[in-house]
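Let's do one together. I've listed all components of the complex below, 1243 residues spread over three lines.
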Amino acid sequence: MTQSRFLRSARITAAGLAVGALLLTGCAAQGGKTAGSADAANQNAFLTIPREDMGTFVQNFNPFAPTVNPMVQQSIYESLLVFNPAKGNTTPWLATEWDVAKDGKSITFTLRDGVKWSDGKPLVADDVAYTFELQKKIKGGFDYLESVAGEAGNKVKFTFNKPWSPALYDVGQLTILPKHIWSTYADPAKEANAKPVGTGPYTEIDSFQPQSFVLKKSPNYWQPEKQKIAGIKMLAFAGNDGANLAAANGDVDWAPQYIPNIEKTYIAKDKDHRHYWFPPTGAMINWQLNTTKAPFSDAEVRKALSMAVDRDSVTKIGMSGYAKPADCTGLSGNYETWKDSKVKDNCTWTKLDVEGANKLLDQAGYAKGADGKRTLKDGKPFEFKISVGASSSDWLSVANVISQNLAEIGVTAKVDSPDWAAVVAGYETGTFDSGIVWSANDPSPYKYFNTSMGSSTVKPVGTKAFDNYHRFGDPKADELLSQFAATGDEAKQHEIANKLQEEYNAVAPLVPLFSGPEWGAYSDTRFTGWPTQDNPYATLSVKSPTTVLVLTSLEPKSK
Amino acid sequence: MTASLASTPTDPAILSPQAVTPGSGKYDDDSSGGSDAPGGAANPGGSGVSGGRCRATRRSFTQGLLTNKKALAGTAILLLFIALALLAPVLFPDNPSKITGMASEEPSAEHWLGTTAKGQDVLALTIHGARSSLLVGLTVGLASTLIGIVVGLASAYFGKFVDEALSVTTNVFLLLPGLPLLVVLAAFLPPGLGTVIVVLIVTGWAGSARVLRSQALSIRSKDFVAAAVVSGEGPLRIMFREILPNMASNVMSTLLGCVIFGIGAQAGLEFLGLGDVSTVSWGTNLYWAGNEGALLTGSWWVFVPSGLCIALVAFALALINYAVDEVTNPRLRKIRAPKDRVPKTAAHKSGSSHSKAAQ
Amino acid sequence: MRFILRRLGFYLIAFWVSITLNFLLPRFMPGDPVSRMFARSQAQMKPEQMDQLRKMLGVDDRPLWEQYIDYLHNLFTGNMGTSISRFPTPVTEVIASQIGWTLLLGGTALAFAAVVGNLLGVFAAWRRGGAIDSALPPLLIFIGSFPYFWLAMGALYLFGVVLGWFPLRHAFSDTLQPDFSWEFVSDVGAHLVLPALTIVLVTIGGWMLGMRNTMIATNAEDYITMAEAKGLRPGRIMFRYAARNAMLPSVTSFGMSLGFVVGGALLTEVVFAYPGVGYQLLNAVQGLDYPLMQGLFLTITAAVLLANFLVDVLYVRLDPRVRVS
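Okay, and this is what the predicted structure of the assembly comes out as:
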C-alpha cells in the first residue's frame, strides 16, 4: 500500500465524517463567515498567544473561577494600579493617585476620569466597592479590610481594622468588575459571564472555539490611542510540546511557556526577529527543611547543607541556566530594590563550600563514619527525603543535583517524587522531611519574611498549614514584621526590611536556591514594542498584572 | 455459554498492535471486554481447531516452535535484549543518569549514540533502560496471565454462580478507566517500579482472564474432562492437570500479549509523566527527550533509540506469538507454492485464486 | 429473547458496579480539589481563601453514603453537576463541547482501521502466500510495535514540521469558522489525517491478522467447499460465504472499540493538540475534579455497555445458532 493512496483515502473519509462531527459539536449554527484571511496585513493581524496548560477552552470568563480563562484578568478587567517587578516601579492605572493615611489604617484612591466599561457606562467608585464586597463574599480573604466606600471627587477609601501597609498592592492589584452587570447575576460565583464587560483594552469575545478564541478591541477603551493591535488570539494546547512546536514554527507571536534549550529550539530558527528575556522576578524557590525534625531544627545544620549545594549546577542543569542563584537575603529578583547590600555582599552559607559544610557538621556533632557517611546524634544514619511533585521535571532535576551534592559531605538524600497532591499533603500536615517549594511573591517582601519566619504562620505538626510548611518561627522576626506592617512610610519599611534580612541571614529559616525566572519569548515579525532587558517596562509573562502594559504598548510592524 | 472465536488467540486484542492503543493506556481495541460474545456455537469453523487438536498436538508444540523461523528470530531478538539488560552494569558500571559529556552531542566514537540535552550518554541510558522496561513487562505479563489462568479455570470448572460473579468482575475491570486507578494507586503506594507494575496488573489482568476463560470453557465441555470428573478427580487436579495443559498455546499467546501490553503501557504512562520519572527506563528516556525538546532541536539520537528498542522487543514477542499460532493451527502456516497446499481446501483455493488472477 | 434479557441483566449489574466504583475511586484519593489547586497555583492563591473556595465549589464533606445516594439520584436525572477544574461550567457542557471532535477522530480511525484491516485480512486469507499475505503482516506488526506516542511525534515532526504536508495542531484552522462549506470540511479533513492515520497504523495490523486467521479457518469449512463445487464466483464465495461468517469476532471487537472511542484518545490529543475529552479526563483526574471525572466515566461506561449490547443484538441476527443455545 502506498502512502499517497493511504492519505488520499484518509482525507476523503475524514472529510465525509467531518460533516457528522459538525452536527455533534453544534458549531454549524454559527454561520459561515471567515474571520480573517491568510494575507491579512499586520494591521489586521491578531496577536497570537498559546496557552499550554488548557487542552481546550470553555466559554467561561468569570474572574472568580478557580481556573480563570486566559486574559480575563489581563485584557478584560483592570486593576487600580500595576506593579512592575522588572523595574520595581508602580504605574497608576484605573486610579491616578492614592494616599496612605498616616496611621496606616486607610488608603484613599482617586479614580481616573473618563474610564468607561466596554458597554459605554462610566467606571464609578461604587464599582470598586462592589468588587471587594463580591470578592470577600465569594473568595474570602481581605480580613483586614473593614470597609470600602466611595467619596466625593471620584475617590474610594479603603479602611482597615489595623495598620496594614501591605494592603496597598493587595487591594491595588485586584481587578475591578462592573456593578451594573454583576449585581444582576443571580449567583455571581456560578456565572459563566460569556460576554464580559470590562474596562480593559481587548474585551470582545469573538470566534469562540474549544481550541481557540479571539479578543477584539473594546469600543470604549480609555486609552484608544494605545489599542494598536487588532486583537488577541489565544490557542489551546494540552502541554508544552504542542505550544513549543507552534512557537518554533513561527505560528505564535508570544511564547510565554517553558521552552527547553531556547537558543536552539526557538531563537536559532529566526535570529533577527526572535528574542527571549527571563528576568529573575519570579518567586524564590527554596529547599525547605522541616524544622520540627532533628537535625533540621539546628540552624548550623541548615547552613551546612546549604553550603554543600552547588547552586550553579542547580540552575544550569535543573533550570537549563534560566534561573539566577539565590543569596543569603532569601529575596528573589522581584525584591531587588529591597535588598540590603551589606547582607548581600557578605553571604557565606549560600555559597558552595564543601569544606566549610563538612567543618560545620563535624562541629555540630554529626561525625563521619568509616564509610564516609555521617550519623545523627541518636546513632541513626544522616538520611532523609527530598520531596518534589512528579510533574515538575525541572525541580526534579534540581533535587537530583542536590542529592548528588549532599553525597559529597556524607549525607544521604533520597529524591521522593509522588504526585503533587501527596507531596503537598505532607507539607500541609508537617510530616515531610524536606522539599523543593515555592514562596510568596508580592510587591512588598513582608509576606515572604512572614511566611518564612513569622511565628503567626507556624502551625503545629498535624494541623494543616498553607504556608510556612517548614514551621519556623522567630520572635525577633515577629517584632520586626509587626513594625513593618504598621508603617506606611517606605523609607522606614526599607530600614526594617534590612533588619529582617540580617535576621534571615543569621537563622537560615530556609535554604534559598534560586529566583524563579519569568519565562517569556517573542517574535517581532508582526508586532513591535516588546519589553526587553533594556526597556523593562513589564515582564514577558502573559499571566501577570503587567501583561496589560505590554498589550497597550505593542503595535503592528509597519513595512 | 462457551467459547467464541472472538477470544481465541487470533483475537486482535492479543496481537501486538493493540497492546497499547492511543486511548487510555490500556487496550481499547479489546474485543474481550464487556460483552461475553454469546453462544458457544458462535465459533465459525474454529471450534474444531481449538478444541479437538489439543491432545494430539501437545507433543509437537515445542518442537514445532523450535523449527519455526519466526519463533527463532523473535527469540533471538528477545535474548539479545535480555542479555543487554543483564550486562548493563558491566557495560556501563556508572550511574547512567550521570553527566558524562557535553550537552546534545551527536553520535561519536566516544558516545556511540550521542548525549542528551543534559549531557548524559544515550547508549548507557538505553541499555540501562532495558532493565526496568523488561522487568516491568515480564512481571506484568506473568502476573496478569497467572491471574487470568486462575480466574479462567475457576470460571470454567465451577460454572454457574462462580462463573457469573467472575465474569462480572472481569468485565467491570475491563470497563474501569485505567488512568484514575493509576492516580489512586500511585497516591497510596510509594512511587517506583512496584507501583507501575501493580497498576498495570490491575488494569491488565481482565483481558487475559476473559480470553483464557473462554478457552477453558471450551475444553471443560470435552469428553475427557467429563470422564475425569466422573472418575472422581479433585477440582484442582482437573483444572491444572487436565484442562490447563490443553490450553498451553493460549496461555503462551496471552502471556506474550500481556508482556507487550506491559512494556507499551509502561512507556505510555511514563511518557505522560505518570510513572516514576527518576528511574531509568525506555519510557522515562522518552519522557525526558520530550521534555528537553529533542525533536525540536533535531536531536534524533535521543528520541530514536528507546522507541526503537520498545518496538523491537514488542516485535520479537509478536513474532513468537505469530509462530505459536502457526504451530498450533497448521492451517495458518505459510504456504509457499500452491502445490504444497493441504489437499482439500487448498486445491480448491488454488483453483479459485488462479481463476481470479485470470479475470 | 431470553438471551437478550439475560444479557441486559448482566449489563445492568456491570453498569451499577462500574458507577459505584467511579464514585468511590476519586474519593479515595488523598487531598481535595482545592488543595490540589493550591499546590498547582504555587502561592498565586491565598491560603485564607481556601475554605471559602471549598464552600463555593461545593466540596462535599457529608458522609459517603449520603453523597452516594445523591450521586445515584443525580445520575438518573441527568444532572452531572458543575465541573471543578472548569468551574462554573456544568459538566454536561464541558463534555458536550468537545465530544464531537473526540467521536470524529476516534470514529474515523476505528472505522478506517477496521474496514481496511478486515478487507486486507480477507484478501490475505483468500490468496495464501500472495503479496498481501506474506509482506503485510510482519510489516504491520512491526509498525504496530512502536509506542503510539513515539510514532505520532515522529509523524508530526516528519510530515508536519519537516515536509509541511499537514497542519501541526487543532481540529481545523483558526482562521475558519465552522460551517458546511467545502473549504471548512476539507480543512477539517486535512487536520484529521495525521492523528487518525497514526492510530490506524498501530491498530490496523490487529484487525488484519484477526480476520485473516479466522478466514483461514472458515475457508476449510464444508460449506465453502460446497459453494466452490457449485461453481459460484470466487468473489461471491469470498465475501458472501467466507468473510460473512468470519466476520463475527471482528464485529465483537468493533463494538467494544466503538464504546471506548468515547473515552477519547489521550496521547493523540496531547501530541496533536486535538480538542477532545481524553486530555480533559487526565486533567480531571489530576485535579480531583470529581464531577467531571464521574461525568466522563459515566459516558464511557454507558457507551461501552451500549455498544456491547448492540453487538449482542447484532450477533443474534448474524448468527442464528446463538438463538438456539
